[in-house]
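Lay summary. Proteins are chains of building blocks that fold into shapes, and those shapes determine what they do. In this project we predict the shape from the chain. Here is one chain we studied, written as its sequence of building blocks.
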Amino acid sequence: MIDLKDFEYDELIDFLVKNGEKKFRAEQIFTWLHKGVCSYDEMTNISKTTREKLEKISYVSVLKIREKYVSKMDGTVKYLFELPDGNCIESVVMRYHHGLTICISSQVGCRMGCRFCASTIGGLYRNLTAGEILNQVIFAQKDLGERISNIVMMGIGEPLDNYDNVIKFLHNVNHEKGINIGYRHITISTCGVVPRIYDLAKEGLPITLTISLHAPNNEIRDTIMPVNHAYKIEELLKACGEYAKITNRRLSFEYSLIHGVNDSEENAVELAKRLKKLHAHVNLIPVNKVEERNFEKGSFHDIRRFQEKLIELGINATVRRELGADISASCGQLRKKVL
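And here is the predicted shape, written in a compact code that computers can read:
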């Protein structure tokens, strides 16, 4: 059976025409799907004959809210969504002055093995389809009754390890007949799958690309991020430079500060030297506590000292605001607990 949300708009037209329907049906059905209908019966402007035909050859996918938590501190909402096959993924909706931002997952589990991340414990189960990625936005928006204006792909999984489905999702969530979220309001975070960074640059999508760097040199990165064994920092930063050149988009780097591992003043100096030519922004993240790991975050003073050293050396650096701390909003923690 086919999930219609896995089709891009033009693919949906082709599918319907091949099954004896008129082209204009695609716009009607595409719009209904993005509104979050749970069955064909809710598509009130589609004939019963067409609905019955579609039910025999396709289905309308849904996500079930398995658990939901709302932060009493800042209104952050965390969802544990259950997929039709029983697997679970997480999404987090954060409130900012400019609107709602959703952090979504791209895979069930992750095979990248970053040692500070809860999402990768247990490895990769499978990729999400384009429709399953899209459903996180649709059903969070439907549950909240509010429009989501920004998307960050920083949840469970490595987006560039599920490249084709992620690109389809981007086309669909941006489509004017659907949710219509602008590309400039979408951020993809990658741990550094270098070949796919080059591929993404060629897509011509004005999204924001964020690199999970987390170390100033190969020695440290090798110990905390297995992807660095395949693509060293020099190779990764070369790809970043090409991406910025081709897209004319400013890059951002994420850097989890792990006390005693990568947060010394020397580390800050080396990081600044690495990134100086890229004119990038560095987002410093106090490392999240993961039970299976022994990583600790430094003091407020340690974090500020690292930030100030970067700024002193000409790097634009900010410290990520911690949201939803009372509901363990960092992706991977809730799914791991349920599993």
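What the prediction tells us: The first strand starts at residue 2 and ends at 3.
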